[in-house]
């Protein structure tokens, strides 16, 4: 485009201080928006890990109680945690209803009743705190995912970006080749950063269009860990060890 405008003689002016001020303003606004978006993205990256930590804390308490009191069955609570992780992944990746997550979190209350009968009050308070933490984190994801915070800023940025690109096309300098290279580089850089800001603004999109979605592998790994009964392997190992000890064979 720059070469075409040059050949047609559509150069309306030369590079001056006003053009420099325009490019400086656009660069400042783009850098400001990119910095804010990157800061929010780094915060979002930790949300799945925080959810995993909260669920693992509940599961650790669940297994601790089962080891301390053999009459307590940890499997129902493990299944409840499994359902929560599964519903979160389906909500994020398959756009399943958020209500299922809320239902699964509420169902934990009944499971906590059985847990509380066999456990101490401080441990019960701890796992209830982790339950509340999961609710807060899911609500935060919903707000980030479904709310467009920067729409007015995007409009301003687009206007400034288009103005800058038009100005770069229509100004001339004594050295056309250098002008062409610099104009192309600036245009490409600003356009790429605008696309990057759009991409980073919704890190929980998961629609196949974004390359900067938050990694969900910690949640998927936790789902695999919760699916089998963790105590089955322990019981099986103890059985095998016991049968291997002389005198324990029947």
UniProtKB/TrEMBL annotation:
Lineage of producing organism: Bacteria, Bacillati, Cyanobacteriota, Cyanophyceae, Oscillatoriophycideae
Transmembrane segments: 20-38, 153-171, 177-200
Domain of life the protein comes from: Bacteria
Alphabetical UniProt keywords: Membrane, Transmembrane, Transmembrane helix
Protein's name according to its UniProt entry: DUF4239 domain-containing protein
């Amino acid at each position: 485009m720059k070469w075409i405008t040059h050949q047609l003689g559509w150069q309306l002016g030369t590079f001056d201080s006003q053009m420099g001020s325009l490019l400086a303003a656009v660069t400042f606004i783009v850098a400001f928006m990119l910095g804010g978006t990157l800061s929010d993205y780094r915060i979002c990256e930790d949300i799945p890990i925080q959810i995993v930590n909260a669920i693992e804390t509940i599961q650790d308490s669940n297994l601790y109680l089962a080891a301390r009191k053999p009459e307590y069955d940890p499997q129902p609570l493990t299944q409840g945690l499994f359902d929560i992780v599964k519903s979160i992944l389906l909500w994020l990746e398959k756009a399943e209803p958020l209500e299922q997550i809320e239902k699964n979190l509420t169902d934990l209350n009944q499971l906590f009743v059985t847990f509380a009968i066999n456990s101490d009050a401080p441990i019960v308070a701890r796992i209830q705190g982790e339950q509340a933490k999961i609710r807060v984190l899911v609500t935060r994801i919903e707000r980030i995912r479904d709310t467009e915070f920067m729409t007015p800023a995007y409009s301003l940025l687009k206007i400034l970006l288009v103005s800058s690109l038009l100005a770069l096309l229509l100004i001339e300098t004594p050295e056309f080749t250098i002008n062409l290279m610099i104009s192309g580089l600036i245009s490409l850089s600003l356009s790429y950063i605008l696309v990057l800001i759009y991409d980073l603004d919704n890190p929980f999109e998961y629609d196949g269009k974004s390359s900067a979605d938050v990694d969900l592998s910690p949640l998927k790994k936790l789902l695999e860990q919760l699916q089998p009964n963790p105590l089955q392997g322990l019981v099986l190992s103890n059985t095998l060890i016991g049968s291997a000890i002389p005198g324990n064979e029947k």
